[in-house]
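Pilot study result, target chain (449 residues):
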Amino acid sequence: MPGDGIPEDSLRRLGELGKADIVVGIPSYNNARTIGHVVRAVQAGLAKHFPQFTSVIVNSDGGSTDGTREAVLAAEVGDERLLMLSTPALPAHRLSLAYHGISGKGSAFRLVFQIAEALGARACAVADSDLRSITPEWIELLLRPVLYGGYDFVAPYYHRHKYDGTITNSIVYPLTRSLYGLRVRQPIGGDFGVSRAMLRRYLERPDWETDVARYGIDIWMTTIALAEGFRVCQSFLGAKLHDAKDPGSDLSAMLHQVVGSVFLLMQEYEPVWRARQGSQPADLFGFRFDVGLDPVAVNLERMLAALARGAQDLAEVWSLALEGETIETLRRLARDAVRDPAAFHLPDELWARIIFDFAGAHRSRPLERTHLLKSLTPLYLGRVASWVVEAEKLGAAEVEERIERLCLCFEERKPYLLARYAGQPGAAPALAETRPEARPREEGMEVSP
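Predicted structure:
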């Protein structure tokens, strides 16, 4: 039922609004410094590009204590709004609401989708609250393909610094592309547009109380759209300038939840991805151009130290997923990295095999999933360290060419994934329950900022 799960005070406000053609959600948690700019960009985009539609801006907040919600309600577009309008515009209403349920981005999205459904919205868009590069044109690019092109899911296409988005570039993009056959460059981008049919499909799903409610929401949304035959496209948004992190800092929770969500969805949609071979480009809207990007600091030694600790402490856990030869290769690479960090290289073929092995083990060993996912962290950091060394002198075009080679490596080795998913070759030994030291130790996997 429309309105189910929406707080009572919010329902009263929605009753006053009645209907809306467009809903734009902005999830937040302590983003007072940046969210005012995001709200103003959204308001300006709606006024400039969709003045004929009624619209509502929803701030779905996770309990901010820094004045985020007040910043949303105080945001004003300013006098420049008058220069954008060629026809009388219907004003965008603003709501700032606290969501309920599991703390995380997914719970915020769910409230936005529920409000969009309750208002009968034809299209819904969501934008991150920490964006510094959002412009009014983003709103057009995320909504126009839905409203006028018949698309159900609009993924963002950004230019990002070569050291930003390493979970996307090293795991999620190559794996998702090889599975579902469409080249969605940012499958865990935080900004997107969806149709009413798409958001209804999301709302009827039963898994909102899982890790989907945290970091897994973006890949969950993208995968459902790809696997269930919804019309998917991308819109080029330019640079994504936000509060980027050193990829060697503590991204472990995000890594576990995102990769865990990918692996769980692989099981659900196995009949779909088993039948798909190769990949095709996704439709892309917007004018592509080169942009300047903020630098991203990296700590190569810290990442390599994490890999070395993993090779020393986690071999037994890795053996649940990896062949003995693979583990020995990783040990050798870790030893060599200590002697010469600048020469470290983890080959694409080895990396694809590692990810496919973990996907197979995640399916076959449900009781050990938590330990497997945690033990992936030092391997991911090792891959990022290899990328930092390799990409140091690469320009933007060369970076994309290099990521394309990695994706093709994943696609070409999909038969290996099919074999591993079927339990071949060989079975990994059981985890020794009587040896606590065999369990992943947090300090052996996670790197402090």
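One observation from the pilot: The chain has a mean pLDDT of 85. A full batch analysis is planned for the follow-on phase.
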